[in-house]
Amino acid sequence: MSKKILAVDDSKTMRDMVSFTLKGAGYDVLEAADGLLALDALVSQSVDLVITDINMPNMDGISLVKALRENPSFSSTPILVLTTESDDSKKNEGRDAGATGWIVKPFEPEKLLKVVQKVCG
Amino acid sequence: MDEYEQFKTTYFAECAELLGDVEVQLSSLSDGSQDPEVLHAIFRAVHSIKAGAGAFKFTQLAAFSHEFEALLDRMRDGRIAVTEQGVNLLFKASDILSAMIEAAESKTQQSEDFGKEILDEISLIVTGKLAPSQTIKNSDDNQDSQVNQESAPDEKLTYQITFAPKTQLFKHANEPLLIIRELKSLGDLTSIPILKNLPSLAKMDGEEAYLAWNFELISNVRLDEVEEVFEFVTEDCDLEIKTVSDNSEPEDEIIEKTSVATQSSDPANQTAKSPVTAAKVTSIRVDLERLDRLVNMVGELVITQSMLSQQTNDLPSEQFPHMVRGLEELALHTRELQESVMSIRMQPVKSVFSRMPRLVRELSAKLNKKVNLTTIGENTEVDKTVIEEISDPITHMIRNSLDHGLEGTEERIELGKPDTGNVTLSAEHRAGRIVITISDDGRGINRQAVMKRARERGLIAETATPSDDEIDNMIFAPGFSTAEKVTDVSGRGVGMDVVRRNIQALGGRVSIQSTPGKGSRFTMTLPLTLAVMDGMIVQAGGDKYVIPIPNIVESLRPAKSSLKRLPTGQSLVHIRGHYVPLCSLHRVFNINGAITDPAEALVVLVESEEFGTTGIVVDELIGQQQVVIKSLESNYKPVPGISAATILGNGKVAPILDIEAIYRISQQELRNSPVPDDSDHSDVSENVQDSLASKEAATLAAQNAEIPTPSIG
User: Which residues 61-100 of chain A have a CB within 8 Å of chain B?
Assistant: First the structure.
């Protein structure tokens, strides 16, 4: 069974790229356009990893991380936040909320895969 | 990164949407909005643009959006105050951003200096307020990237690593096992677990961290690559990494001992709490080509369906009840299918409207007039094909309103009007069409000036006394321009006549209503789609033609006594106190075998802004039908008097009449008579003389009777 990853980003471009890269490496990828939709998607299924952007409408990535950590079903699901080099503080913010790690945008496909492997094998 | 090439299309489409959002938000910012969500929304948009730009290696765009984003970030958390100059800078920056995206999309190389001025200005503002610590952090980042570019050392190093996870490591869902596995992938790894903290099984808590490890890693990777393994856990463990060079001289240098105080200012959280303005994305993107194919196929289906129903029209329903019922349902479903397919291509006019605040802003600065633009009904939907076409006319009419319509500030004050002029842009659906109005509270149309100009240009007879409405609408006449001087704003060599012609080419109409001193209002009506329309099938001689339903007022069989003929040969029909000029289809198209006496024929009254109401004389009405529009230009060649064609149920092609062109042709015909007409009509729509002729006819008719002017709006 391939691992299932939920990619959350309001940018379709980023979702597509994350999804393309991960699918190419044999992962199953679900997509959601913001935090609320991500939570919706997780009501009925579990995933092996959540990758989320931080800046999103409706519910941002930090709130999503917090919400997931408060839910016992997802307390030990790895979560990666997507940050950009300009907001270093976001890494810490993400961590404080309970994120497992981060990926700095823009990323090379290899980097993404490496980080994904790092946190979910 | 070439494998990402395929996402560029999505990226650019997304950029266009994001830029539209930025525009809207900037406008509300410049209108004094204090809502923090506005800046957040702009930030998010620029952020997304930047992320993609980085991924696709649009370095210039990435660099610019990076600075832009930094500025926005500081504005939204209050480190930089949002002043009027600040908002102006944001506007300029969004222009640069848009130009850079365009350049990236069209693969044009921009000069390296492009946007540099703004970039520098932003950098100054951003760095001017930067706290020293943050500056240091930035330079740290730079060092990092330099280190990364260095080549790996050739000689193998021995790393001695002590790794003691803390409990919170698990809270963040990190997994020591995976870290060890990754470490192992770097080289030869010897791991010695430290078990001294391990409690007895009974006391063990599954969520606690008890284990620690000593590792010895022999590898040729650099230190930072080893550190990277622990990237996510540095704060959740005690970690010590020592290097021992392979020729074994222990250096005992402590490379890393982690303790970084974390701070969290939390603007992102505020984002979540503040009112949500952006809509949920529950849409999918479909290539327009696929959609067009779908629309075309449905068009074909409609034709086939109408063919079927025509062929079986005479089927006795008592004999074939199921067949007849089935066909009725087929007709219903086909219509529904067509409507849903067409609705896929419907888009809100917002994408066009959102560009206008910017235009007004720029123009009002240039003209030194205070203008307040209100937009209404921007969610009104219209077919994508129409959206693409309405931007230019709207832009032109707004320019016109600002330049000619609205008075200068001083003049307004003198007149006792509020110093800020109002322009309202609105859209609504009415009777299956979209109606777009642009109104201002300016000076209205100067009718004396228009009359004078019209006489000078020979657009109207010296003796004519046109109604106010007619005078106002003369601004659409070819070659007419009231501007005393050619201004930078609306005097671009394109007159309102071109606007009208472009709108008419879309099957639309435009008119103006004006009250001197109070303002004027442009009304533009367009079909919701350029792919199908409701048409009335008429017959003349053996041929069938389609008259667009929106043009039709009524149809009637005129009594012989109501028909008159002017000395010029122009036939008129007297309807409810008005005389309406007639034009016979058979004369326009030289149709043989058609009914020539209007008294025995049928008159379809059609109206248009250009000539008011006129009666088209045909043999017979066949019936109303939704027709699929097929372009003549792309399938055959342009034919004067015909705007497009359709395929009828019997498989025959029927021309769709361009009633305005037909009117012009018939007027030219009259002008040329009694000389037998053999002139070429091909340039008829371009011919200024035609309009002269039509005005002549209108004037003549006006001398005899009042010509009903079309009711507009």
Answer: 61-63, 69, 75-79, 82, 84-90, 92-93, 95-96, 98-100
